[in-house]
Amino acid sequence: MAGIFISYRRSDSAPHAGRLHDRLCDYFGPDKVFMDVDDIKPGADFVSLIGEKVASCDALIAVIGRGWLMRDEYGKPRLDDPTDFVRLEVEHALRRGILLIPALVEGAEMPRAEDLPAPLSELSQRQAVELSDKDFQRGVDKIIAVLEKLPALRNLGTKLERRAKAPDASTVRQARSWGVPVALLLVMAFIAWQWSAGQKTTAGTLAGEWAANIAYGWGDSYKEQFTFKPEDKQLFGTVSFLGAVRGIEKGEIDGEVLSFTVRYQEKVGETVTDRTNTYRGKLEGGEIRFTMQDDKGSPPVEFVARRIGG
Predict the structure, then answer these.
(1) Residue 304 class from Cβ within 10 Å (0-12 exposed, 13-18 middle, 19+ buried)?
(2) What angle, rounded to 10 degrees, do the helices at 156-165 and 10-28 form?
(3) Which residues contact 226 (CB under 8 A, 6 or more apart)?
(4) Fewer beta carbons within 10 Å, N or C terminal of the chain?
(5) Could you write out the three-class secondary structure of 207-268?
(6) pLDDT (tens digit, 9 = 90+) per residue, 150-188?
(7) pLDDT of res. 275
(8) Tens digit of pLDDT for each residue in 94-107?
């Protein structure tokens, strides 16, 4: 089981939690970082399961955005619900007394004790780390410095770095025997440089806000907004679906093509179902031509997004 548990609200801070997850995996290894409780089967006791997941971790990072204290459709704070996933995760961490680090994103402030239910009030006393978009890595480095002091995580980053840097003996022998001509190496380096430059150009073109008028298959139309924050071949940001802003997940950039998923909950009567939309777009001039496919087998929806103010 992982040594670090990342707690977050999908509708509040999914892109930032994803970035933090990737950075910590790079440093400590993917087997030491746990982020989503996606393996809860229908009918399972999710309260006990979350408790078990958190109990087997050495630290919990609570990613807190400006919507972390959000209310439900009835106007009640979601944290007042004893079965709220975020409340359960943080409450179990406080109860166990494990290391708990609040990570503030998008300019969020630490919740006050009076804004929290009694079992979570102690959270307001924990020292927070800010993860700003301008200097995200600096905040990550502060978190890593604290995590490295835990016995279960100590020296893991150093071992991973040595493993990544040190070639094995067979690699050295192969390099000596290949005798690749210098000219070929230069050509390959030039091609790689051109590809990298193209990736940076695409990322720079995508960054910012976009909008699209989308006519969905059931007849309703919405003006949806897209905020893209590319980092090399990864794509972060937010997307609105049916007017509600949601975090981008599994965002990737491949040349002029971008793809990502968005998760949401569909309520029919008393039944709530987790759903996923998959988006694939191609950048053409000042437009992005998208195809969106849901996970219900509906016909794909095609639309064009244009930069806001462009």
Answers:
(1) middle
(2) 60
(3) 209, 210, 211, 212, 237, 238, 239, 240, 305
(4) C
(5) CEEEEEEEECCCCCEEEEEEEEEEECCEEEEEEEECCEEEECEEEEEECCEEEEEEEEEEEE
(6) 888 876 655 555 444 445 444 545 545 455 565 666 656
(7) 87
(8) 998 999 999 999 99
Retrieve residue 10's tokens: 């999908």
**pLDDT, tens only, 268-308:** 777 778 889 999 999 888 899 999 999 888 889 999 999 98
**In the chain, what are the helix, strand and coil shares in percent, each to the nearest 5?**
35, 35, 30
Query: Per-residue pLDDT for 121 more than 60?
Result: yes
Q: Find out whether 281 and 291 touch, Cβ atoms under 8 Å.
A: yes
228, 238 contact by CB (below 8 A)? no
Domain of residue 259, CATH code: 2.40.128.120
How far the first Cα of the chain sits from its last, in Å, is 48
pLDDT reading at 1 higher than 80 = no
CA dist., res. 205 & res. 307, Å (int): 10
In total, how many domains does the chain have? 3
Mean pLDDT of 197-221: 77
What contacts 119, CB < 8 A, 6 or more positions away? 87, 91, 94, 95
| 141 vs 270: which has the higher pLDDT | 141
* Assigned token pair, 285: 């001039």
Range of the structural domain that residue 154 is part of: 4-161
Residues 151 and 270 in one domain: no
